[in-house]
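Sequence, please.
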């Protein structure tokens, strides 16, 4: 904005009308480059973060531009009418020359992005690693910021300076909910931005007194909201479903391990993977170990029976009356032993390498699956299955601690 105002003042001072699009956009480009260099200098020479440096420069430059517009109104021959369109946009009044200018500028940005996609991706993810590999991080940073300036200048005619910030952020943020690949994210964000521009411009043309720039941003914001809800990679609905599946998986693992460890404790830790047991565990024992409610335990037992992992046993005791217990099936026994083995390995690792006391390690190992994200847990289990480690279930550290 200060570059646009300064270019207008210089043109009027030299006898022009000040509204040459080439001159105004040249001033905008120079001002944008200066702002880019100011951000880079603040980030590298001070302890300010990039976000703080960008916020300072944006606010100062925008304030300077507004001040210059006020000065233009007071000088002889100065009339700032029309310059406000760079703030709010003027899609409806764009001419063929403006469209061709946008085409060439955006084509240059696309070409630069495609030619340096690998380097820019590495710069964004790990600048220090890129520098250690010999990449010119300073020039790559300048190139990236120059492309941002270039795209911003392209958007001046369509939505203006203020709403252009939203168009830089919203399509990319919406695309992030659909993929974890940066290449596909770039394509998706392009499609989302294109659809938002087309629908917003059409809505502005159909309905009277609706500014095109604001409508474009609102359409993009609506697409962001939809992506946030139903995005297949990081959408809210998908994450809720994954979390519910993970919680069910954890509860099932707790049930199977509780049954196994109860049987194991009754045999002083002698039970192993190679010796399945048909012992029946009372429900009261499981409730005591897991601190579950009877309703939670009943629900998990029903799910375990549906998957042929456990079976419910009802017996009559002369002293206690009717007793309900649970027994592991053959498949359930193998799965319970595998889960117990994994848990014991975590316990052994925490005791040996984290120096935790055996009396406290059970809870830490039990909670590790609640700390890790579902994706990490799935990846760890994949790696464990790929290694094909076949060993018996380790003896519980708690038995070793209790022995003389």
């Amino acid at each position: 904005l200060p570059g646009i105002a300064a270019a207008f003042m210089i043109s009027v001072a030299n006898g022009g009308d000040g509204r040459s699009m080439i001159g105004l956009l040249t001033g905008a480009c120079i001002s944008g480059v200066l702002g880019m260099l100011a951000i880079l200098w603040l980030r590298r020479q001070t302890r300010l973060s990039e976000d703080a440096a960008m916020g300072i420069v944006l606010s100062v430059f925008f304030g300077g531009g507004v001040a210059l517009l006020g000065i233009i109104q007071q000088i002889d021959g100065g009339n700032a009418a029309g310059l406000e369109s760079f703030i709010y946009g003027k899609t409806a009044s764009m001419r063929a020359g403006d469209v061709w200018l946008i085409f060439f500028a955006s084509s240059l940005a696309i070409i630069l992005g495609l030619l340096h996609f690998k380097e820019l991706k590495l710069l964004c993810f790990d600048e220090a690693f890129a520098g250690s590999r010999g990449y010119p991080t300073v020039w790559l940073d300048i190139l990236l910021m120059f492309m941002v300036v270039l795209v911003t200048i392209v958007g001046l005619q369509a939505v203006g300076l203020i709403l252009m910030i939203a168009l830089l952020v919203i399509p990319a943020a919406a695309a992030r909910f659909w993929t974890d690949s940066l290449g596909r994210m770039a394509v998706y964000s392009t499609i989302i931005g294109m659809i938002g521009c087309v629908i917003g411009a059409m809505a502005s043309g159909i309905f009277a007194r609706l500014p095109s720039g604001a409508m474009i941003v609102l359409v993009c914001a609506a697409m962001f909201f939809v992506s946030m809800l139903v995005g297949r990679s990081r959408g809210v609905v998908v994450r809720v479903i994954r979390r519910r599946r993970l919680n069910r998986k954890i509860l099932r693992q707790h049930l199977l391990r509780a049954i196994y460890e109860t049987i194991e404790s009754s045999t002083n830790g002698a039970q192993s993977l190679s010796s399945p047991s048909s012992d029946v565990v009372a429900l009261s024992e499981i409730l005591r170990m897991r601190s579950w409610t009877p309703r939670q335990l009943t629900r998990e037992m029903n799910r375990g029976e549906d998957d042929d992992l456990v079976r419910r046993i009802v017996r009559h005791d002369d002293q206690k009356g009717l007793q309900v217990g649970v027994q592991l099936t053959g498949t359930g026994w193998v799965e319970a032993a595998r889960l117990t083995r994994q848990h014991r390995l975590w316990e052994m690792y925490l005791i040996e390498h984290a120096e935790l006391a055996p009396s406290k390690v059970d809870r830490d190992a039990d909670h590790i699956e609640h700390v890790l994200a579902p994706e990490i847990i799935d990846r760890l289990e994949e790696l464990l299955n790929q290694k094909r480690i076949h060993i018996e279930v380790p003896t519980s550290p708690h038995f070793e601690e209790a022995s003389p």
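The chain has a mean pLDDT of 77.
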